[in-house]
Description:
This protein is α/β, with parallel strands linked by helices. The chain is 28% helix and 30% strand. Mean pLDDT is 85; it is low at 561-565.
Amino acid sequence: MIAAETLAALLIGAGALAAAARLVLALRGWRGWALAALSLASGALLTLALFPPRLPIGGETLLVATADTASGTRGGPGERLVALPEAPRLAGAERVPDLATALRRYPQVRRIRVLGRGLTARDRDADAGLPVEFRPLPPPRGLVRLDPPADTTAGSAFVLAGEAAGLAGGTAELLDPAGRRVDSRAIGGEGSFTLGGTARTPGLARFTLRLRGRDRAIVSDTPVPLRTLAERPLRVLLIGAPSPEAKYLRRWLEDAGAELKSSLAAGGGIDLGGEGARLDPGAQREADVVVIDDTALAGIGVGGRAALARAVADGLGVVVRMTGPATAGTRSGWRALGLSVEGGSDIAPVALAPRAPDPNALTARRGPGTEDVPGTLNTIDDPAPDLGRWVLRAGPDLVPAVSDADGALVAGWQQHGEGRVALWALANSFALVLSGEADRYEQWWSETLSAVARPDSRFRPEAPALVQVGERMAVCGIGSAARLRRPDGQEVPLAIDPDAGAGGCAATWPSAPGVHTIVQAARGGEQVFAFLVLPEGALRTVRADEDAAATTRWAAEQGAPAARGVPERRGPAWPWFLGWLAISGALWFAERRFRAVTAAG
């Protein structure tokens, strides 16, 4: 059914159009068109006089000052200025503990304008229910994004990434806990960089990310936590034929402390593995990873591959090592394990990145030499070996585990049930050992095996990787009796949020920097998980950029249709009535005048 307002507007519009058409036809020339325009204006003003436009009730704008708000900020007419705790001192601003408090105090506010860097997570938890305007400031000079390294096993390489603003042409350096430079990279025009090193002693270590400007001056030093895990020995089954690849892989696994069982069939019933390993269901249940070459995989037959695929679905990791070009039958065997890859018949050179940016970084990364392998045996100036890789074509489900300096795939894995299957496409990786690059060889194999190995059951709660003093942090995956042990040894219980469901989540606000430990009782003792709390302000520029991006998204959501509607009322009708009266009078007078002139003519 048509609303009364719409019906009246249609009738008035139709009448105004009919009158305008009559005037144009009765009075030729500009006089008729002028009177027609007055007739249409009279109809529009009559509609507005009967149904005045709606106006918002109140209309006051709330100016919300956050970090880095300009010191000269003042509220204008119809604006109310409030300052959140992180905002600087502002003349005439009222201090409020949070945005929700300000909205409760001033219910007449109908718009919000956020000033400065943006709202922190404290004020973005809930919708404001009002339109919000926010124009982010330019990113602060310095570190604006930091992706810390993931938990790393001892002896493996770790990687961290970040982004810096205003430091194009500068450098990013990674310093170990002793202050020695481990890695260094130039900061490009986009500001992104990637650094890496080697995890050594199990435990929690504090590295430092140092940013330098174009003039080599230090801009910032940011603590970066690294958790190095002391995992139980990796249980590996090595299946294949005797070859240099198998020889050096077996030697590295033994030196790395893996629980290795191997079967290297030389033909004629001769097995050079020595351990009498068999790829039966019992061995598959006990192993963490099976490393098998493509020839041995083809030799176990359809039934053997089906049994191995079932073991992968239950959590076993498998690495298929290519020893020659792939055929259609080879790829069919891979697909039986859940690995969808095409190609593999052509070979291409492997691009190797420099061992380190300089000799000092290489020494720090390798660690002290030994009598058998002194630190001066292989230097940064030694030529890189010639390596080849089988060229593969894979879909988005294949995740790279190792890539060369040009981003080409060296090893990649694909999920299959609870486990993973990886493909090692390096044709002659043992050449790395023979040419003095055993550290790169070990790193690549460590990354591949770590990516697919059966997961362990260690106590590892979900906690933010970067935490500052005073910031709220949520910890999930803990029990009801979990406690937080502070650096001074005091312990406080962690209260599980009942609304978090089965996740076992609690919140805490660390009040001091240093190593904090989550402790909870378990069978046979206590389970502990340590994490590093950074000093207040250590991530100031990172948090500023994060708050700006998050506030921009939050403000856009407040302007969405789901936001609470603004109360409105009809505006005054008398201005529109006076306008209609004036236009109608002018129309009446002009029509009589023009008709008289036309009759006299």
